[in-house]
């Protein structure tokens, strides 16, 4: 009897050790995915926007990414309902059309996200990738402030200090760039540092507001995140088409919607469309500290790659500013005693996917239920 209990205890211990090892591997995989997605999107956009030759229309890329996101979310919903097409159609019609008041609530964040996606192209086209990556962390500050104002969340003293350090680090980087514009913008006559800086600041403000607004909507609704993304994508596609017609309508009518699209441009679009959804899947395996570390490490990766790909010059002032930002991002992600602000940290530390990150995320497992059950 004693031998049997000993064997059972040993098996349980081995099982527990195996689960712990699996969780550790999932965390490392999550870290790698977050770092690669954060850094690769910015570097690839910068690369395709600085190549010589015909340039694609960024407005068409934004629309294409929205269409791909909608199709992907529809496929996920179909999977969750065990590929029952009829039931999926009824479900979507009920969720989107019959509950139109609920759908209309997504018009505001969708407009802001569409604006933000277009501004990111403008910013990265005019700023070095490393400078954009550092400056874009201001979205943590804007998200935190909007969370305090709109959701009445509280921040710890460490988080407030980290926000001050974040602002100081970004300011130092901007001083460095102002004093060395020739190095920060590689002599291109069509690149404007001021335009890029204004674009990234507005993008950070819009990201903070839209992320908190979307979180507020999610908390007041039982709809799945995938349905919400379909609703956002419908508005985003329509608004993106409107922006495309307004800004590039005549040129696209003359040259075509896919003008300038290369394999690299398609890679950027797929990264933008699926990267956020991929992060949404793995982010549940990563705690706030890991996400903060991933964001910090992606800044280092972007800076190092910018040196090799774009000849970016790293001096002492940039290193000091970027170091403050990296430290601030990590400090902000540290856990606090009260759990009330944990969602604020998670919503602000993911650079890629404000629309899909959050505790309401559903797994890719079928969750179909018969009607009336």
UniProtKB/TrEMBL annotation:
Family listed: Belongs to the nucleotide-sugar transporter family. SLC35A subfamily.
Gene behind the chain: SLC35A2
Listed Low complexity bias regions: 339-353
Membrane topology according to the record: Multi-pass membrane protein
Record field: transmembrane: 26-45, 57-79, 158-175, 195-214, 226-246, 266-286, 293-310, 316-334
Name of the protein in its database record: Solute carrier family 35 member 2
GO molecular function terms listed in the Swiss-Prot or TrEMBL record: pyrimidine nucleotide-sugar transmembrane transporter activity
Annotated region (Disordered), positions in chain: 338-362
Top-level taxonomic group: Eukaryota
Naturally occurring in which organism (per UniProt): Amphiprion ocellaris
Keywords, sorted A to Z: Golgi apparatus, Membrane, Sugar transport, Transmembrane, Transmembrane helix, Transport
InterPro entries: EmrE-like, Nuc_sug_transpt
Gene Ontology annotations for the cellular component aspect, listed alphabetically: Golgi membrane
A UniProt-annotated Pfam family: Nuc_sug_transp
Subcellular location: Golgi apparatus membrane
């Amino acid at each position: 009897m004693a031998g049997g209990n000993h064997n059972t205890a040993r098996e349980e211990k081995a099982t527990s050790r195996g689960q712990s090892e699996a969780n550790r591997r999932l965390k490392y995989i999550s870290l790698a995915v977050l770092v690669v997605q954060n850094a690769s999107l910015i570097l690839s956009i910068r690369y395709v926007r600085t190549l010589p030759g015909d340039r694609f229309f960024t407005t068409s890329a934004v629309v294409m990414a929205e269409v791909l996101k909608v199709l992907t979310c529809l496929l996920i919903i179909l999977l969750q309902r065990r590929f029952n097409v009829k039931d999926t159609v009824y479900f979507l019609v009920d969720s989107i059309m019959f509950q139109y008041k609920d759908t209309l609530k997504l018009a505001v964040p969708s407009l802001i996200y569409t604006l933000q996606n277009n501004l990111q192209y403008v910013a990265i086209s005019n700023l070095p990738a490393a400078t954009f990556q550092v400056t874009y962390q201001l979205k943590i500050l804007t998200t935190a402030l909007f969370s305090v104002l709109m959701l009445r969340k509280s921040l710890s003293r460490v988080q407030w200090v980290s926000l001050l350090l974040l602002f100081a680090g970004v300011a130092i980087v901007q001083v460095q760039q102002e004093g060395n514009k020739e190095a920060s913008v590689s002599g291109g006559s069509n690149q404007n540092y001021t335009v890029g800086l204004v674009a990234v600041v507005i993008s950070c403000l819009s990201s903070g507001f839209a992320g908190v607004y979307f979180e507020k909507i999610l908390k007041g609704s039982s709809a799945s995140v995938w349905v919400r993304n379909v609703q956002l994508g419908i508005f985003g596609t329509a608004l993106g088409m409107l922006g495309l017609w307004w800004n590039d309508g005549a040129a696209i009518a003359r040259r075509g919607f896919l003008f300038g699209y290369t394999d690299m441009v398609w890679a950027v679009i797929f990264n933008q469309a699926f990267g956020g959804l991929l992060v949404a899947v793995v982010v549940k395996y990563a705690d706030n500290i890991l996400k903060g570390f991933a964001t910090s490490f992606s800044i280092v990766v972007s800076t190092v790659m910018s040196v090799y790909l774009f000849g970016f010059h790293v001096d002492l002032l940039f290193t000091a500013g970027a170091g403050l930002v990296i430290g601030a991002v990590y400090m902000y992600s540290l856990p606090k005693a009260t759990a009330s602000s944990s969602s604020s940290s998670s919503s602000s530390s993911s650079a890629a996917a404000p629309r899909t990150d959050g505790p309401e995320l559903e797994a890719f497992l079928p969750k179909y239920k018969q009607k009336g059950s």
